[in-house]
Amino acid sequence: MTAPLNLLWLQSGGCGGCTQSWLGADCSKLFETLAGLGINLLWHPSISEASAQEARSIWESCANGTTRLDILCLEGAVLRGPQGGGGFHRTASGESMMALVERLAGVARHTVAVGSCAAFGGITAGGCNPTDACGLQFESDIAGGLLGQNYRSGSGLPVVNIAGCPTHPNWVTETLAALAANLLHLSSLDSVQRPRLYADHLVHHGCPRNEYYEFKASAKKSSDLGCLMENLGCKGTQAHADCNIRLWNGEGSCTRGGYACVSCTEPGFEEPGHPFAETPKVAGIPVGLPTDMPKAWFVALAALSKSATPKRVKDNAVADHLVVSPAVKRTRWK
Q: Domain holding 43: CATH number?
């Protein structure tokens, strides 16, 4: 019988929201789910009962090779400040979290960044970045981070970046399952090392506002039903995630809740260069166009779509509830 994989989860500069999301996964019994996948959770700072001394013993046992470390997960950005010493975040033993992560990443079979902070720096690295926060192997979209762009774990993989703010719980569980089954390879990751199991999709896919998008019938305020792209900052046509296919808690997503997609799975989303709820434009055309779409085609199609917008769609787009229902029409050919 194959021995279970040992998983150690650490938290650094972040809010803990990815753990909170993970605890809300579709599976109601997280520990049993992990055990069923062949994963043994050695320690997690938010949900383990081990004392500080016991936790230190676990870390050291992993670092010196006494305990096999199969999966190292880091949630939250690495705080390298002040002056590169990592002193802004120290463990119970006095060692910087930065140094501990470096030691453990050196012996881990797989290293996983959980959330956009651990992957790219995220919110923690926003603004003037006073803590010198970075991701494990990226600073925004620039390869490097704490471990350097040439880092490879014991399996030969780079850091696996389960990006998102927070991550969808099933992205985490399915990535861990793929690692446990030895089914996650370099070809399973995209150009910024996100698992393609969710990053090969766009938030736009499955969005309930797609009819409004097709006719360019746009919302003008946050409570409107229309498409949020033209005026309210939605980047669902550019953001790599399957949020509207794999719903949160079985039924939700940002756009379903009336909020524009801020592209939280993308490097640098925290510094868009404009207010999150506004769409920057040049000559009335959104700067951020749908992925893979040439500007000239977008302009032509947008003009055509708006000219063909049904009155029902146009009226509903700027209302907070359906004011005109679809007409009843025979759909059979004969």
A: 3.40.50.700
